[in-house]
Amino acid sequence: MRQLAHFKFFDTLSKKMVAGFIILILIGTVLLSLPWATPANVHTSLIDVLFTSASATCITGLTVVNTAAHWTTFGQLVILVLSEVGALGYMTFAVLLFNIMRRQIGLSTQLMVKASLNLERLSDTKSVMKYVVGLSLLFQLGGLGLLAIDFVPRFGWRHGLYVSLYHAVMSFCNAGFDVFGDSLQGFRNDPYVLTVTMILIIAGGLGFLVWRDVLLYHTRKRLTLNSKLTLLTTFSLFVIGFVLLLITERDLELLPTGMSWVNRTINTLFLSVTPRTAGLITMPTQGLQAGSLLVIMILMFVGGTPGSTAGGIKTTTFGVLMFQSIAQLRGRRDVEFSHRRFSQENINRALMLIFLASIVLTVATLILTQTEKIPKGFGLEYVLFEVLSAFGTVGLSLGLTPNLTLIGKIVIMMLMFIGRVGIFTSLYALSRRQARVNLIRYPAENILIG
């Protein structure tokens, strides 16, 4: 790896992170191309194998083939491992391996971990790593145990434990792959499974830094501004999404007519949680009302928390812009929250992220409208939904994924990659120029806005 640092492509942390994910995707492609990954006489094209590997590594869950039927247990486990490594970050596993081998962690490795987990201080690297690994094991093993209570009696010991493990990992990693064949549509009348799944999804999407902050609250007696903003934004989106979906899907015609109001409410609750980058569903998305699709697309665009298993523009970006708008409407110069003010650098970064994301999504949507066939009864939402799902690393689809053209698959793979790695990291990796300080500042002048 040291030899690679001499090449110009590996001269920055962003380029190293991008290269690491690309290598991981290629390794997954090779493993899924092996004859043991699919049943005998089942052929998978190279682009479909690459797409599946990219979707798993980028913890998205969009699939061109049915995971349960197309892949063998070996193939499914490859997807599971790719999702786990993709969710926690390959550098997390590299550091874990260094610790097992009792080798010293180099400065370059620590810097990459710091960047991948959005840490503020380099000194936090080792302590945060312990929380990342510990919390991941705690939630996933806990989820396995809770799900096994339902799945083992239903499927038997062997398959029940396998399904429990698979579903617990995919739920926590917000990956969206399933070995049931129809996501969770067969469990729409099982509030226990849906509740456990929602807890795992929220836990994974909340972020390791926030969990660390919450767990240390009893000693510190305070939360960081990042954690406060994350918790507030997450809770607000959760409640607003739930209420809006109750309104737009008040009849819930996609659910059985004899379903109890408790189960119908939990299914609506699940529908408001899963667009936050999980990709699991209890009802076919093709039958949802137009208003519901709009709500889901907004939730997919926002996504989860920085340093979590989620994609999208992130809750903190949304929160900063929300409070900036409130400050502007009140005529205040500073953007304040919880007796603190956001730096202008934070605000500028949030605005730039929204702008760049809008450009990327617009270009991708335009390309797909030209390359993909939109079925009768659908409009622009058929393509836009897929684009937002890929960018938010969600995994929901209106049915376009299995029917994507070659160009369409490439576009969606690029969106999944950008959504997982991040727009800034992706652009910095492509940039050849280093940031420089302007020695000249020109006079300021106002222009008309709005």
TrEMBL record:
Ranges annotated as spanning the membrane? 17-37, 77-98, 131-149, 192-211, 231-248, 293-313, 350-368, 380-400, 406-430
Q: What is its main location?
A: membrane
Q: Name one Pfam family in it.
A: TrkH
Return one Gene Ontology term, BP aspect: metal ion transport
Spell out the GO cellular component terms annotated for this protein, sorted alphabetically and separated by semicolons. Answer: plasma membrane
Entry's localization field: Cell membrane
- Note whether Transport occurs among the keywords: yes
What is a single molecular function from GO for this protein? Answer: monoatomic cation transmembrane transporter activity
Its placement in the membrane is given as: Multi-pass membrane protein
Q: Which organism is it from?
A: Lactiplantibacillus plantarum (Lactobacillus plantarum)
Q: Does the keyword Secreted apply?
A: no
What is this protein called in UniProt?
Answer: Potassium uptake protein TrkH
